[in-house]
# Entry
Amino acid sequence: MSRDGRGRRRATALLLVLGLTVVGTTQAWLESHPLPRDPGRRLLYLPKGTFLRAASLGYPTFLADLLYLWSIQHYGSVSADERFLYLEHVYGQVIARLDPRFVDPYLIGALILVAEKRDVEAGLRLLDQGMEANPDEWILPYEAGFWAYDTARDYERAAAYFKRAMEIPGAPPSTRRLHAEMHNKKGDKQTSLALWSEVLAGTDDARVRAIAANHVHDLTLEIDLAGLNEAVSIFRERHGRPPGQLQDLVRAGLVPEIPRDPDGGEYLYDRRTGTVSATAAFRLRRR
# Structure
């Protein structure tokens, strides 16, 4: 190894030792100066990352790594009453400002905020910040889509996050399926059917084809039944009686044709009750 190479290794080792010493000394000082009324306030002594960059001696990403490791230790050891104090400050204003391209702190910070603190909006704000700094990282909108769907039950926002994720190279195929299903969850079954049909047509994976086919089957059944029953209701309002048969809906211009169900059978019409049903059974257990 050349003299220059040995010199660089010594300098790197020295910097590592120095960094660990500084972090260890700082941690010891903080622990020896408790603030009984608000112990978590000591985290505010950490300046924002934009200021720490100037003090990092040209190694902001290295300092971000150290603070990230410290943060995991801190949030894994402090008591419940101070556990969640200043989470957004530590992850969003300190670590993320030091190294905006460091993806893990956005994910871990959001996980703590949503799953433990139960503050989904704060978690999504942190992930949004990560997306702005890392538009090429599909995992950030994917994770945001999961929290918006699973915790917030905000299917509109979840669909937007999954759409953003699936347009980034490297996103897993499941993202398209999640995007399609979010439209179903928020009640836009026509769009969901179109998206699931695209998934079905665009895959050679037998398992994915079976999943997509089941969704297409049930959505078609739901849309057909809803449309025909709505047409029957409109016919009744106009004529003061239900139609004698389903073909009356076509003659009245309420539907272009009477479709067959996804299994190829005919839809059933009960003139007495004025309701349309199907012999085809739903394949999924979401009803």
